[in-house]
UniProtKB/TrEMBL annotation:
Protein name: Cysteine desulfurase IscS
Swiss-Prot/TrEMBL GO biological process terms: [2Fe-2S] cluster assembly
Keyword Cytoplasm: yes
Predominant place of localization: cytoplasm
Residues bound to [2Fe-2S] cluster: 323
Residues the record lists as N6-(pyridoxal phosphate)lysine modifications: 201
Coiled coil: none
Catalytic activity: (sulfur carrier)-H + L-cysteine = (sulfur carrier)-SH + L-alanine
One Gene Ontology cellular component: L-cysteine desulfurase complex
Residues at the active site: 323
Classification of source organism: Bacteria, Pseudomonadati, Pseudomonadota, Betaproteobacteria, Rhodocyclales
Amino acid sequence: AIYLDYAATTPVDSRVAAKMIPYLTERFGNPASRSHAFGWAAEGAVELAREQVAALVNADPKEIVWTSGATESNNLAIKGAARFNSARGKHLITIRTEHKSVLDTCRELEREGFTVTYLDVEASGLIDLDKLAAAIRTDTVLLSVMLVNNEIGVIQDVAAIGALCRSKGVLFHVDAAQAAGKVEINLETTPIDLLSLSAHKIYGPKGIGALYVRRKPRVRLEALIHGGGHERGMRSGTLPTHQIVGMGEAYSIARAGMAAENERIRWLRDRLWAGLSAMDEVYLNGDMDARIPHNLNVSFNYVEGESLLMGIKQLAVSSGSACTSASLEPSYVLRALGRSDELAHSSIRFSIGRFTTEAEVDTTIVLVTEAVAKLRELSPLWEM
Ligand code: PLP
């Protein structure tokens, strides 16, 4: 099988796994044990990883809070900031193409009495700054916008959005789960207050992530998980040392290799797109320029996405996103771009990664081209 679903998850890089294993066995101490060497060794490893994660986004290690992944980071950032600041205002803004872990968190806050504006995006998948500015009210406390979209790979202009938020006194949260290690993130120069990170999208283990919480000016949150007061009270619970070590190593590898890796992946992406777009009635979803090279989301008109997936069983790709593919609803992200139900239903997300080869791309082009041709022959709507 050919794996082209790196946006869903990635394998743990063998260099990462090698660093993790000692922390499962001989270096098993609790990083909170301050009275003996077992604890000190674990604590040292956790703090090194904190530096590695902070370095990828140019932050202070003190601004990094460990969580179980970007889902938890999004919950902590949005609920934590909204609840802490609720005396100042109870209005939040987000966009329709956010990940469910942002949208469902906002829905939960609506049940608590907050009001949320769900902003539309343009056909490119990008947001219009004027429309955003018009949505900001005097009681708006937080805006949440993802840096890279998980389904279509488009990159939002978070520098401009952040500057707008700063000028209006609105806190700015960014879900960077799909962005870390793929696009430059510089938190020293970009006005972002809270930023969610995950390890398993970038060759680290599942079940570990982080939330960046700005210290200057200081951003305060109400905790979701109470207990021993770990992570400066923001997230209690014994730290999973091996997971944290894995995330640190994965981020360190990403930082060192990002430029070269992006170039190689862009070359593969261009090859894949050249092959697929040689067919008629093939449409790219999302802006072609403001996108990461790792993602190609394509609609094949006159073909039903689920049937196409069945026809290319050797390929691990997704139609819609992994978390919503259990339902047969067309992707809400593609619908938000204004795509018709037909085009939204006929979409496939190809996501390329570190271990993708040229031969895999070439085989993919052949398999998809054959499957699309076969399905179109059977379609009563196809008359070319
Ligand atoms: N946000 C985005 C944009 C994602 O793509 C994902 C991945 O599914 C998440 C959040 C959730 O991340 P995690 O799996 O670390 O909870």
